[in-house]
Amino acid sequence: MGGSLNLNHLLFLLQGAGWTVVLSVLALVGGGILGFAVALCRVSASRAVRLVSGGYVQLIQGTPLLVIMFLTYFGLPAIGFRISPLAAAGASLTIYVGAYLGEIWRGAIQSVPRPQWEAAEGLALSRTQRMTRVILPQAVRIATPPTVGFFVQIIKNTSLASVVGFVELARSGQIINNSLFEPFLIYSIIAVIYFVLCYPLSRLSRRLERRAGQGRGQTLAPA
Amino acid sequence: MNLNLDFSVVLERWPSLLDGAMVTLQLACIATVAGGAIGILCAIGRRSGPPVVAALCEIYVEGIRNTPLLVQIFLVYFGLASIGLQLSAMTVAALALTINVGAYTTEIVRAGFESINKGQIEAGQGLGLSPAQVYWHVILLPAIERVYPSLTSQFVLLMLASSVTSQISAEELTAVANYIQSDTYRAFETYIVVALIYVVLSLVMRAGFFGIGQLIFPRRRRLGTPL
């Protein structure tokens, strides 16, 4: 107990913020790879693949991230897998982000106008060529604004890694609070740091959205 | 690896799981109704309020949307305590969730407002409707009907997010799960069962919102198409 907020505490918080960024990027990369696979499975020609990937998305989107965190961190050791807080948080976020990004990107792929699919087929492109040369380049443009927006959700959701003992921003705040006991002040500082991390990305997402809207409006105007 | 799963010790606790699920639904309902009302009011404030009100609403929305729910819950919990208000964990949880979902609702309803064609409003005025009637019949109701699907997904996400209130020991489903797993040492089975209960709860909520939508939007029911 004792002391007041000093520079060391702030440095500790900034270090926590650094881990929040690391975990967010890990979740974006891991979840991105998984989400990309899920998105492709969701538009697959095979009914079974579509059903299984759809079931995965429904299951994860119906479960709180917190419960997934508890399941990996407390559940896996209980059946014999040792797992570190970073691995548990990273794995949970990857599973979670994969389902949401998969759904966002499926929407992007499917909103590439139908004639583009038909034209690619008419040019005798193979299924892979059609995806990589025609559909995906256009889907990426549609998907960018919501993906940036979802990255804000990822940053906020990494705060839940604090419950499995991973020392990111929220957890480092709890640790400092345990010695200073000034919860309102400390959580306000933490909220401000999260805001500084998230707000520019929110703005960027909105700007991209507006620009994409304009671009699409122009290309679709003659039709 | 020696997998030996035993779900029976968890399923034996079904009465407390059921209680927890009910508390979760209760929190979700309170926050949906109260947060929905706040959201609609703030969206109106941002659209038609004086500049000060519009700015305040925007600060509220951006502040909430760019910080984690966990931190908001702690801020409400300790903030109220520091001004001498000792409320129960349940009240704090409901309050924090309401504040949170209110901001998201504002943003969604605002998008609905922006989708209303100017010509519709002019047509309403041309038909001699009073400003209040135009706001109600031409702007608010059609806007909400249009964004109803996004609103309901947001409310389902809110129900899932209410699990975070277990961190201030509100006795909802996740808190019950934590208690059961520390009691039975069956963490894996407990959280699997609880995850499935959440899946069921979100399906129930989706079905409920679909039914409510059919009831309150007769036009959609008749034509079967979105606006």
UniProtKB/TrEMBL annotation, chain A:
Subcellular location as annotated: Cell inner membrane; Cell membrane
Entry-linked InterPro entries: AA_ABC_transptr_permease_3TM (IPR010065), ArtM/GltK/GlnP/TcyL/YhdX-like (IPR043429), MetI-like (IPR000515), MetI-like_sf (IPR035906)
Keyword presence, DNA-binding: no
Protein name listed in UniProt: Amino acid ABC transporter permease
Main location as per UniProt: membrane
Domain ABC transmembrane type-1: start-end pairs: 17-205
Lipid bilayer topology: Multi-pass membrane protein
Taxonomic source organism: Enterovirga aerilata
Keyword flag tRNA processing: no
Keywords: Cell membrane, Membrane, Transmembrane, Transmembrane helix, Transport
Transmembrane segments: 20-43, 55-76, 184-202
GO cellular-component term (any): ATP-binding cassette (ABC) transporter complex
CDD domains in the record: TM_PBP2 (cd06261)
Sequence similarity: Belongs to the binding-protein-dependent transport system permease family. HisMQ subfamily.
NCBIfam families reported for this sequence: HEQRo_perm_3TM (TIGR01726)
Gene Ontology biological process: amino acid transport
Gene Ontology molecular function: transmembrane transporter activity
Gene3D superfamilies attached to this UniProt entry: MetI-like
Automatic annotation (TrEMBL), chain B:
Subcellular location: Cell inner membrane; Cell membrane
Keywords: Cell membrane, Membrane, Transmembrane, Transmembrane helix, Transport
Domain ABC transmembrane type-1: 21-209
The UniProt record lists the keyword Repeat: no
Stretches assigned to coiled coil: none
InterPro entries reported for this sequence: AA_ABC_transptr_permease_3TM, ArtM/GltK/GlnP/TcyL/YhdX-like, MetI-like, MetI-like_sf
GO MF assignments: transmembrane transporter activity
GO cellular component, one term: ATP-binding cassette (ABC) transporter complex
Matches recorded under CDD domains: TM_PBP2 (cd06261)
TM annotation in the entry: 20-44, 74-97, 191-217
Record's bilayer topology term: Multi-pass membrane protein
Pfam families named in the record: BPD_transp_1
GO BP terms: amino acid transport
Stated family: Belongs to the binding-protein-dependent transport system permease family. HisMQ subfamily.
Entry protein name: Amino acid ABC transporter permease
Organism: Enterovirga aerilata
